[in-house]
Amino acid sequence: MLNLDEKILFALNDLNGKYRSLDAIIAWTVSDYLIPVCLCLILICIWFVGHNKTTRYRYQLGVFSALAAMAISSGISQLISALIERPRPFVTHDLVVLFYKPTDFSFPSNSVAACFAIAAVVCTFNKKLGLASFVLVGILAFSRVYVGVHYPSDVVMGAIIGILSIIPVYLLRHLMEPMPTCFIKVARIFRLA
Q1: CB pairs under 8 A, 24+ apart, for 12-16?
Q2: Is the pTM of this model over 0.70?
């Protein structure tokens, strides 16, 4: 598996510098800001849309679920990363890196896990926005490998962790139910929901 991992990494990294327009696009999409901020904007939009109070309330609970899944996926990713301590690809290989060189460990990709968690939850209550979110996160995952800050298996494991993180959220949502409902009621008083 590691051999295939390295072959894919080297194939993508060899494209660096050959296609200036692709490099420019990747420079934007690989950042810790563009796609995560787009996902946050999607959550903010979801918070305020809905044909009626019932739909809007369901969407607002979905936003809470997405944030909880993101937190769970980040926690799991950090725990696995601390246990495995896999160095970044640019540390062990001579790669062209178009991005800053992160100092934490590579496996799994925390940013991909957190973003996939958000996309997975959004997909459970709004298919179109969920699929658009998955496309954005897929671009982020590709970009992270392209620039040499992650191996392909890092982003694949991040995606798996992110998608599976919705399971505990939905299993425990009845226990957590009073908190989001109370928050939403208070937000409605101040016209924030």
Answers
A1: 12/142, 12/145, 12/146, 13/89, 13/95, 13/96, 13/146, 13/147, 13/148, 15/146, 16/96, 16/98, 16/146, 16/147, 16/148
A2: yes
